Amino acid sequence: MKHKRKMSIMLSSILLSIAVLSGCSGGSSNSNAADQPAAGEQKNENEQVTITIWDNYGATTPIKPLIPKFEEEFPNIKVDFQEQPWDNFWDKMAAAASGGETPDIATTGMMWNPKYTVFGLFADLNGLSGGKVNGNDINSVYSKGMIEAATTESGLFGVPYDFDAYSLYYRSDLLEEAGVTAAPKSWDELVEVGKKLTKDTDGDGKTDQFAFLVMPDWYHYEPFLYANGGKVLTDDNKKAAFNSPEGVEALQFYSDLVNKHKIGVNWTPDRGSYVAGLKDGTIAMFQDGPYVMGLIKNSNPEQEGKWKITDALSNKQYGTHIGGTYLSIFEKSQHKEAAWKFIEFLSREENAVQIYKTSGAAPGYLPALESTEVNSPDPFFGNEVPMNVFKAAVEKGTPNPIVGSWQEISQAISDAVAKAVYNEATPQEALDEAAEIVNSILAQE
Amino acid sequence: MGELYLPLTERMENMSGHITTEPDRILVSRKPNIFREMIRSKEAYGFILIPLILLIVFSLIPMLYGFFMSFTNWNGLQSPKYIGIENYTNILQSKDFHKALMNTVKFSIVSLAAGMGVALILALGIDKLTRLQNFFKVTYFIPVITPMVVVSLVWSLIYNEKGLLNYFIGVMGIEPVGWLTDKKIAMYSIIFTSVWQGMGFSMIIFLAALQKIPEHLYEAAKIDGAGGFKSFWNVTFPGLKDTFAFLLIYGVIGAFNVFDQIYVMTAGGPVKSTETIVFQIFTNFRYLKLGYTSALSYIFLFMLLIISLIQFKLIYKKEE
Amino acid sequence: MGEFRKKKIQLFFIYLFLSAGLILNLAPLAWMLSTSFKPGSEVFRFPPKWIPDSLELVNYKKVFSMIPFERYYLNSILSALLITFITVLLCMMAGYAFAKMKFPGRNILFMFFLITLMIPFQATMIPLFRMVSSFGWIDTFQGLIIPQISTAFGIFLVRQFMLSMPDAILEAAQIDGCSEMRKFWHIVVPMNGSVMATLAIFTFNTAWNNLLWPLLVTNSEKMRTLPVGMALFKSSRDIDWTAIMAGSVMSLIPMIILFLLMQKQFIRGITAGAVKE
């Protein structure tokens, strides 16, 4: 019976340690259920409440460092900050939503939000805010497109926290070296300049410096679609419009960069982040959002002064989509007013600037974009003020359509872009096939 | 211990398969006594009671729930609407599903054949060693305990266009290969990684089985004049049959469920050439098409069940 | 004489072959270790550099400063140990019953277990979560641990091993008047140390690396496990490769310790079983 005794000792010691561990955590867990006042009592200013926030910013979150300051100013509100991994954020969200236990606030995005909005997961912020953020009219402090992209019949499901709009990054030193005086503005110029920038630098017969980054996904294709006067969906969001002649021409051009002109590098997912290609000089130019500024600065400090940023490429017109991170409040939240106070706090100019300073992204709160901290010349970017370019982009850009199944639709477009870039199908075939899928998805909406 | 030999060797012959068929016979032939039989077996039920309860609560109930939801447009948030077998017909007609099915079958066959082959060779080699046997055993096993996610990340670096592998073949004067970007090759790269990660497990199991084959059977074969290959075929192979059965049945289930390495290394690409059924289940789950996902899971389960039943029949039939 | 030499040459080639295989086998892990000491900028630098210029612990320190690593580590060890202990115990008993005891419904029940292995977790995740949530188990240790005790694979493995256990010994014990429980502890468990060790390693490994369930069921820092913490190093913008590799190295350590501890049992189980000698 020696075995039995050994086992029971082991078992009881493990159980004991569990009891200890859960004991010391008992206080903070289940904060939702524990100290919930009924909705009516919320008016009481002295009522102690805890709001929970789910944040998917990762290590460079601008939100977490601001919490002590908020709690000092609002001693009756405690913020329970819960970091969530980006990759599984929506798995977590799906489970929480279906199981009925949501936080009060979350960082959300346009990719998945439409679906959840359709299902009524988020509270309408227009009603909650009375149309004002920190005393200013909502429409005056956020870009029109960003607000438009978050508005449905049932209201405003989030306020912009950071924004994303594409501009052209280029290596001014490589352009100079190739005898090019100005960055390309149009597609034609891209091809012309691109030929000079694409090189075999070490003479082994293979190209190791490409003029342009071609990502086989919809984000990077979309600016080309818009620049060519195309649209993703028809205005009533009922049918696919990306397989119009404008769309096909745009994809033709985009895939030709790799297959015909051979000036674009097809950056396949297995290569990981393309920042590596920026570092080793494989990529001379690319289009992406403002957060890449922070990325290059952090990982390639030796490239100081070599990068510059200008408007995204035009063909028939200027083109970029706009997107970004929003802050949303959940319909099931018991502390919506406290949650809104926190959002207002985060949006204050001096706090929104932290988005730029801590995580290198562009604040969605426009007054913060005007602050001197964001607008000082940056030696990394040739002593220019790169934020100006992005500010213009977010004003001129086109928001994505708001349909519940946007995630699936964008995936279908990504598949089509990949097929064309990999030369699996002609752009017409690839987009027509995607359009068929998208139309059947939309028919079910 | 000497006296154990004799009955044991006799048992070796008919040890393996009888399990699956016998109790049924009890059930059928002695029906009137079934309750008495069950009461008499209360000790046995006691041995499986807790696993059974856990199974029912945490697996079976969610599975049944999913089964009912597979006939609805359930999205987890709104109340589901009954739509009949629409999910099933949609899936069976979908081109993507056919492609994913082919990819899954391809992955399973190649990775299982290669994995078990390599593992058997390793086990036979290690079994023969006189020294360092333990060292090899332990070291070959280490990839098995390395998380698949980590394995996939490291191999992504290796397969990278400018990675280790292309560097080595470049030294030998071969053009670089798009290990994960060429749609004809990507699946085999993933299979290679999977075999690398999993072979230690099969190796250990084979080795355990090899070492359980009594030495005197080999000696007897030798006296009969059997050479290396013949004794392998007559002694080793039959001795490993249980092990093959186990590895095959479990291996098919495991291979069909391949996910992590695809998620990390290719995300189903290039152009869906590595998209498997489970990957599709995962994507649709993320779209919150939970009714559709459930239907897809049940088609998947049904296929695995058929394959497993065929395997059981093939493996255990010959025992009769 | 000739045969002896032939054997020696054969053995030499076996060693050669196995050693070559070993290098291929360990290279990716060596790469992981090497990456964990590199500055972030050198991860993608090729030709590959196996030994970093300086052995800096920056990445390891970063892991500790960015997440409450010690707490996650403790939670992981504790939950994985408990899951392993319960799973192995239950599987040994049930596997033994399925292999060596006769009772009505045995095959059907066994098939039941097998079928649950065949359905992907994503399919049952939401119903399971809702159920656990209705038990009030969100963010608790029981919610973290109990649903992870899945016995199907273990029962399958144990049963397969015990099928080849000689009945003679069990029958001898039967004659001595041993109860099933006594037989189990005194004969079955000691004779099947190898499969117990294998199962323990696998269960621990699965629990140790499980990301999705702990992520869903825990919210507070005090409940979270290591894989959830590690997933935080991958954001929408970037992957912190070096931190991930440093974290992976540290998370591999308990696995290797467990394996090295268990493998003694493992070997004894195989060689000292009643079958041989």
From TrEMBL, chain A:
Keywords: Signal, Sugar transport, Transport. InterPro entries: SBP. GO terms for cellular component: ATP-binding cassette (ABC) transporter complex, substrate-binding subunit-containing. Belongs to the bacterial solute-binding protein 1 family. One of its GO terms (molecular function) is maltose binding. It holds the Pfam family SBP_bac_1. Residues 1-33 form the signal peptide. It comes from Fontibacillus solani. One of its GO terms (biological process) is maltodextrin transmembrane transport. Transmembrane segments: none annotated. This is Multiple sugar transport system substrate-binding protein.
TrEMBL record, chain B:
One of its GO terms (cellular component) is plasma membrane. Residues 101-311 form the ABC transmembrane type-1 domain. One of its GO terms (biological process) is transmembrane transport. It comes from Fontibacillus panacisegetis. It comes from the Bacteria. Belongs to the binding-protein-dependent transport system permease family. InterPro entries: ABC_transporter_permease, MetI-like, MetI-like_sf. It is found in: Cell membrane. It holds the Pfam family BPD_transp_1. PROSITE patterns: ABC_TM1. The keyword Transport applies. This is Carbohydrate ABC transporter membrane protein 1, CUT1 family. The chain crosses the membrane at residues 44-68, 107-126, 138-158, 185-210, 244-264, 295-316. SUPFAM superfamilies: MetI-like. PANTHER family: ABC TRANSPORTER PERMEASE PROTEIN, INNER MEMBRANE ABC TRANSPORTER PERMEASE PROTEIN YCJO. Keywords: Cell membrane, Membrane, Transmembrane, Transmembrane helix, Transport. It is a multi-pass membrane protein.
UniProtKB/TrEMBL annotation, chain C:
The keyword 4Fe-4S does not apply. PROSITE patterns: ABC_TM1 (PS50928). InterPro entries: MetI-like (IPR000515), MetI-like_sf (IPR035906). It comes from the Bacteria. One of its GO terms (biological process) is transmembrane transport. One of its GO terms (cellular component) is plasma membrane. Residues 73-262 form the ABC transmembrane type-1 domain. The chain crosses the membrane at residues 12-33, 72-96, 108-129, 141-163, 184-204, 241-261. It is found in: Cell membrane. It is a multi-pass membrane protein. Keywords: Cell membrane, Membrane, Transmembrane, Transmembrane helix, Transport. Gene3D superfamilies: MetI-like. CDD domains: TM_PBP2. Belongs to the binding-protein-dependent transport system permease family. This is Carbohydrate ABC transporter membrane protein 2, CUT1 family. It comes from Fontibacillus panacisegetis. The lineage of its organism: Bacteria, Bacillati, Bacillota, Bacilli, Bacillales.
